[in-house]
Amino acid sequence: MKRPSVVIALTVSLLTFSLPFSFAQTSLTPSAPWGSWFIGTVQLPGGADKWGGFAEVQARSNAVFQQFFYRELKGGISYDLSQHFTFTLAGGHYATYDYHMVSDGPLNTEKRFWQQLVLNQHLSRLKFEHRYRVEQRWFTNRDGSTPFRNRVRYRLNMFVPLNKPTITAGTVFLSLFDELFLNPKGPTFERNRVYAGVGYQLDKHWIVQAGWVNQTNYSPASFEKGTFTPQSATGKNNLLLSITYRLGAKKNAGSSYKLPSQAD
């Protein structure tokens, strides 16, 4: 099988597997309101110098634009190994709150460090991004416990420019991704995240995107005191808004191999 056929088959298989799960598990919690995510990112593209980086702030709310409960602050440096391969080292600080009592401080905080490899593939107007990430996570809970966890993530992101062959200034584009979150110690399948949205690259600096994101968390099956509890899953739909500013963008910034992917 030729390489493009392999990529298309992988994309169809992944989306066929994950999308039904996301919709089904969201229906398990019909009373959960839609939430909202806001992501603001500043990027330093690699370009001819190969070195790049990013800084990002993110806020999430339990309802649309209200009931704030979560925030992220993160950043990192990247290096373009080639036109289609980019390696990144990054870290961040995360905090989760009870949205009823935000003033009481976070329920838990997390310090995270990760290593990431991104591979870009272009099949005519279809632009694919494969993202592989390994994370180290240090938690501090309100009760004083400080657990440590590792996690592995894989994201398949597809972009489709609508009014131009590549994503450059003045381009409207569609974006679709599915991301798997894996726990090396189990349960192996920890989380699934699906996104579909539309974006617009205003010029060589500014990119805006809006869409739907569903995040589903999985709890492992258990057998205790003679009682079997099957695996459970809870999903939540969210409105996602993001804005990206490319700092120091060169004339070729926004070219077809600099895809407008979200750092999260």
Task: Please give a structural write-up.
The protein has 264 residues and is mainly beta. The chain has one domain (3-246): Beta Barrel (Porin), CATH 2.40.160. The chain has one helix at residues 3-26, and strands at 35-44, 51-63, 66-80, 85-96, 108-123, 126-141, 148-161, 171-182, 189-201, 206-219, 222-224, 227-229, 232-246.
Q: What letter string, H or E per element, gives the SSE order?
A: HEEEEEEEEEEEEE
CATH topology: Porin
Structure annotation, total helices: 1
CATH architecture: Beta Barrel
Strand order of the largest sheet: 1-2-3-4-5-6-7-8-9-10-13
Percent strand: over 45%
The whole-number mean of residue pLDDT values reads 85
Number of strands: 13
What general outline do the C-alpha atoms trace?
globular
Highest CATH level, the class: Mainly Beta
What is the number of domains? 1
Rg to the nearest angstrom? 19 Å
Tell me about the largest β-sheet.
11 strands, mixed, barrel
Relevant terms:
11-stranded mixed β-barrel, 1 helix, Porin, 264 residues, globular, two-stranded antiparallel sheet, mainly beta
Architecture blueprint of SSEs:
Layout: H1 3-26, E1 35-44, E2 51-63, E3 66-80, E4 85-96, E5 108-123, E6 126-141, E7 148-161, E8 171-182, E9 189-201, E10 206-219, E11 222-224, E12 227-229, E13 232-246
Parallel strand pairs: 1-13
Antiparallel strand pairs: 1-2, 2-3, 3-4, 4-5, 5-6, 6-7, 7-8, 8-9, 9-10, 10-13, 11-12
